[in-house]
Amino acid sequence: MTALIEIRNASKIFGGKSRFGKDQQGTVALNDFTMTVHDAPPAITAVVGESGSGKTTLVRLLLGLTTPTSGDVLYRGVDIRKLSKESHLSFLRDVQTIMQDPYEVYNPFYKVDHVLKVPIDKFKLAKNPAEAQILMEETLNAVGLRPEDTLGRHPHQLSGGQRQRIMVARALLTTVSPFTTAPTANGSVANCRSCSPSSASSPRGAATPDPVARWNGG
To answer: Which has the closest alpha carbon to 194: 40, 75, 47?
Structure first.
C-alpha cells in the first residue's frame, strides 16, 4: 500500500557557501531521516528533541516549505516537487498544520470565522453559505467549542486554548482524518494520521530529531 506521505533519507544542510562562493562548513539541521505516514490506523506520534535538533526543519520538509539537501519527500508515492496541479491540491487538503502559537496565524482585522471560511471556499467544501455555516458549526462542536460563543468574535476575544481549537477545527474541515503536523507541546492537538518512523539513524553528533513515542488514536 502506498504511504500517504513519506520522507526518505532526507538531510538538510543550511549554508555551506560564503557570499563569495567559497566552501565553508554548513549547519546540519537534519541528517538521513526516514519516516513513513500511512492512511490507517489513526495515530499520534511525538517527535521530540532539544532546541536546534531539527524538529521544525522536519515539519517544513513535510509541508513542502523547504527543499531537502538530499533525500526525498513523497506524497502518495510521488515527489512533492513533481506533483500535478490536481495532486498538489489534494496534498494541501491532506496535510495540515496547527501552529504552536495560534495567535500568530490570525489576522486581527478579521473575525475568527475567516480562518474557517477560507478553506471551505478554496476547496469548495460547501455549495452555499448556509451549508458552509452548518459545516463550521459541526466542526467547532467536534473540537469542543460552542459555535454561538465562538463565531463572530475577533481573535483577541478568545482564549489561547480556544484559538488553537479553532485551528484544529480548520484542519479537520478539509478531510475527515488529515495528517496534521503540530509543532507544539499543547495537549489539545489530538487528531493525526498514523505516523510510523521506519528509521532515524544518523552519525554520532548529527542533529536529528528522535521519534520516541506513538499513541494509537481513535
So the answer is: 40
